[in-house]
């Protein structure tokens, strides 16, 4: 089991749009294995490749006993119905803020054999799918917060010991 070191808010890799996966080889297989191993500890729901320093479009998830990964994911459907749901991030530890998310989401991508994969979910799984896909687009959940809440969150993040650019 390989738990990869996490990258934290302030690290430029987290604000970079990830490259699509074009080579399906042992290196990609190892990345997927590391993402799956690294999402397993309690308190984790999803993990995107940039959170472990890799700028490729891959994420893993484990929500409500659903466990897997998606390569080159794209959100293909979001419900019109939204809600504010408490959200946190492994790359922004200890901070949780209500974030507006679609209640239902559908992601399409591929697996290690480059075969189509579709993952759909509601509530927490929908939140996870949106959150992890955002990471691959260089977007943190803090970017989605309302103006005043975002200002408060950024100030709190910059005061934390883990903040990358101290």
TrEMBL record:
EC numbers: 3.5.1.88
Listed cofactors: Fe(2+)
Annotated cofactor note: Binds 1 Fe(2+) ion.
Amino acids binding Fe cation: 89, 131, 135
SUPFAM superfamilies: Peptide deformylase
Superkingdom in the source lineage: Bacteria
Enzyme class: hydrolase
The keyword Transport appears for this protein: no
Known catalytic reactions: N-terminal N-formyl-L-methionyl-[peptide] + H2O = N-terminal L-methionyl-[peptide] + formate
Keywords assigned by UniProt, alphabetized: Hydrolase, Iron, Metal-binding, Protein biosynthesis
Matches recorded under NCBIfam families: pept_deformyl (TIGR00079), PRK00150.1-3 (NF001159)
HAMAP family associated with the record: Pep_deformylase
Protein function: Removes the formyl group from the N-terminal Met of newly synthesized proteins. Requires at least a dipeptide for an efficient rate of reaction. N-terminal L-methionine is a prerequisite for activity but the enzyme has broad specificity at other positions.
Designated name of the protein: Peptide deformylase
């Amino acid at each position: 089991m390989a738990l990869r070191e996490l990258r934290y808010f302030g690290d430029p890799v987290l604000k970079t749009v990830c490259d699509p996966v074009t080579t399906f080889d042992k290196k990609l297989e190892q990345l997927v294995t590391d993402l799956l191993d690294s999402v397993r500890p309690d308190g984790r729901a999803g993990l995107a490749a940039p959170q472990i320093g890799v700028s490729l479009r891959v994420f893993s998830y484990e929500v409500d006993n659903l466990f897997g990964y998606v390569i080159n994911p794209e959100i293909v459907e979001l419900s019109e119905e939204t809600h504010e749901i408490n959200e946190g991030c492994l790359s922004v530890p200890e901070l949780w803020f209500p974030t507006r998310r679609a209640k239902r989401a559908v992601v399409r991508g591929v697996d290690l054999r480059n075969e189509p994969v579709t993952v759909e979910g509601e509530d927490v799984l929908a939140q996870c799918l949106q959150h992890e896909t955002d990471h691959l687009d260089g977007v943190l959940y803090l970017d989605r917060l309302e103006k005043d809440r975002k200002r408060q969150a950024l100030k709190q993040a910059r005061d934390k010991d883990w903040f990358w650019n101290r």
